Amino acid sequence: MRVMAGILAPVSGRVLLNGTDLAVDPAAKDDIGYLGHRPALSSDLTVRRNLEFWAALYCPGPALRSRRLAEVRELFTLDALWEKRAARLSRGQLQRVDLARVVLADPVVVLLDEPMTGLDPVTSALVRELIRDWSRTKAVLYSTHNVPEALTVASQVLILKDGTLSTRNDLVSGGSSTYEIVCAGPWPQDVAPARTAEGGLVRVEVPSGSTLGELIAVVVGRGVPILDVRRTTVDADAVLREILEDRP
């Protein structure tokens, strides 16, 4: 994450943002917001002074700085912490302030390393909504060991093991959906590929861009009655354990 943020130089390869190499043009880092394990805050400064410092770097002009500071102060409910030194804050409070720092920058790319650490349920819900809102206009990469949390907010899951990334879009919504369908006749494989089991049961994957209703209408139009339909669910924990443990 620190390499992607431009904090550490890569041992090999390059980090490109819109075709720009961060090592060649460090100014490209301005479009990256990074939340690490350790808050980027001075323990000797108050919350206000910490955020004013970062606002001076991120926000050109006093009017924009004042507006952004007021926005994050309200968004993360920082009034009670505003004049407290960072050294006196709890882990969750520090995380809230550091998230406020990231929001101040209004980055194009957002890198979040375990952002929910120490957060109370209310702030966690706020951050989930913030991530969903960001995802409409920004690229958000969220690192976590919490599988249910990842599946709650992610549109795509990347699994990192021994330096290798693999993708499992079936773990999240937004990709294809798989259904178990009981039909009174042979399933037409040209409509959608299906795996056939006993008793007329077939497992069918409905690709993105299509709907189950459209698929069933075609099948019934071919003279194959549909007796039952149920959506299958993916056991995300089992899938991840299988991948990480290298089980066949």
Spatial ordering of strands, largest sheet: 9-10-8-11
Helix-residue proportion:
25-40%
CATH superfamily of the largest domain: P-loop containing nucleotide triphosphate hydrolases
Uncertain parts? none
Query: Helices and strands: which structural class?
Result: alpha+beta
Total of DSSP H or I helical runs spanning 4+ residues: 7
Tell me the CATH architecture of the largest domain: 3-Layer(aba) Sandwich
**Inertia-based shape:** elongated
SSE string, helices as H and strands as E? EEEHHHEHEHEEEEEHEH
Descriptive account of the structure:
The chain has about 250 residues and is an alpha+beta fold. The protein has two domains: about 15-155, P-loop containing nucleotide triphosphate hydrolases (Rossmann fold); about 175-235, Alpha-Beta Plaits (2-Layer Sandwich), CATH 3.30.70. It is about 35% helix and about 20% strand. The protein has helices at about 45-60, 60-75, 90-105, 120-135, 145-155, 210-220, 235-245, and strands at about 15, 20, 30-35, 110-115, 140-145, 160, 165, 175-185, 195, 200-205, 225-230. The strands form four sheets. Strands 9-10-8-11 form a four-stranded antiparallel sheet, covered by helices on one side. The two termini are about 30 Å apart.
Short descriptors:
248 residues; alpha+beta; Rossmann fold; Alpha-Beta Plaits; four-stranded antiparallel sheet; three-stranded parallel sheet; 7 helices; 33% helix
Summarize the structure.
By secondary structure, the protein is α+β, with helices and mostly antiparallel strands. The protein has helices at residues 47-58, 62-75, 91-105, 121-134, 147-153, 212-221, 236-244; strands spanning 16-17, 20-21, 32-35, 109-113, 139-143, 158-161, 164-167, 177-183, 194-196, 201-206, 226-231.
